[in-house]
Design brief:
Elements: H1 6-17, H2 21-33, E1 37-38, E2 43-47, H3 50-64, E3 71-74, E4 80-86, H4 89-99, H5 118-129, E5 130-132, E6 140-145, H6 148-160, E7 166-170, E8 173-179, H7 181-191, H8 194-244, H9 252-263, H10 269-275, H11 282-308
Antiparallel strand pairs: 1-2, 2-4, 3-4, 5-6, 6-8, 7-8
């Protein structure tokens, strides 16, 4: 069984929402208006998505009560392009009359979109030329539009629903794209793909959790390295004192800390403080370690002076 892309998951969910006569009409309007080609002599709807292609055929049959043949072309990568090529003059005229379309007028006609059906119209646009990346990889939704004026109107339409989209030109095609998970969530929710929105949000939550866990792990590793480095330095100081003066030369409070450190190189200052005969805080242990370090420094300075003499 072929695994569907996230885009096709969205398309399939949208298809379940297009379930009455008005929605059939409005959704097909979006698919035709934003199709690959529309002229006085030819309308061509094409898609690499079988879901979108099947939806176009189904809606066309319901709205116009006529069947249209599908041409399937397979490229060298074994990917199929589904093409509905309408060139019959009578059918072109029928479509143009129903949707008030003409070759010289490529604009969204809001007058033929019933109240509260803008979401279905935008769903039709998505089915015609939209795609969305797998959120596990990237947050990116885009529409590939073949007419500049329609691309500009789509940007304004998205702005009306509170979504900021940008327009760019890519290989002679106008790309209306949306970045950012929240904007994509708003768009998918508006057009009727609520379950896909929830799936995207779950992916985002898991991503954030993993990133947080990685940051904590990296921080913990850095802290461990600092603890080990500090411990090795403290042990070096204590061994120097033991070798030159003996640990018995230390005051009792420093001697006890030094002995615990020698026997527990992996222990934190907090652990050492809790192991003392009279437990003290981490800062108390740190203060004693600084006193030990000062004594070791004095020994090194003395040895350096004797060496120079």
């Amino acid at each position: 069984m072929i695994k569907l892309s996230f885009s096709d998951d969205v398309r399939q969910e949208l298809c379940t929402c297009i379930n009455d006569k008005n929605k059939h009409f409005v959704c097909l309007y979006g698919m035709i208006l934003f199709s690959h080609t529309f002229t006085d002599s030819r309308i061509c709807f094409q898609s690499k998505s079988k879901v979108a292609a099947d939806t176009f055929r189904s809606l066309f049959e319901k709205v116009f009560c006529e069947n249209i043949p599908c041409c399937e072309l397979t490229d060298k990568n074994n990917k199929t392009m589904y093409i509905y090529n309408i060139s019959d003059e009578r059918m072109i005229e029928k479509i143009s009359d129903k949707y008030h379309l003409s070759d010289n007028l490529h604009h969204i006609n809001y007058n033929i979109i019933p109240t509260n059906s803008l979401c279905t119209f935008l769903a039709g646009i998505f089915l015609s030329c939209g795609s969305v990346n797998d959120p596990k990889k990237e947050y990116h939704l885009e529409f590939t539009v073949y007419k500049k004026e329609l691309a500009e109107e789509l940007v304004l339409l998205l702005k009306e629903i509170g979504v900021t989209a940008k327009l760019t030109l890519r290989r002679k095609q106008y790309i209306v794209y949306i970045k950012g998970s929240e904007s994509i969530e708003d768009t998918l929710t508006f057009i009727g793909a609520q379950q896909c929105t929830l799936n995207l949000m779950n992916v985002k939550i898991n991503k954030d959790f993993r990133n947080k866990a990685n940051r904590i792990a990296n921080c913990d590793n850095a802290n461990i390295e600092k603890i080990v480095e500090a411990s090795m330095k403290q042990i070096a100081d204590i061994l120097l004192i033991s070798k030159t003066r003996g640990l018995s030369s230390l005051p009792d409070d420093l001697k006890e800390v030094a002995e615990i450190r020698l026997n527990g190189a992996e222990m934190s200052l907090q652990d050492i403080g809790e192991s003392l005969t009279f437990p003290i805080s981490r800062s108390g242990v740190n203060h004693r370690m600084r006193r030990i370090a000062k004594i070791a420094h004095e020994i090194r300075e003395s040895e350096s002076d004797n060496y120079e003499k």
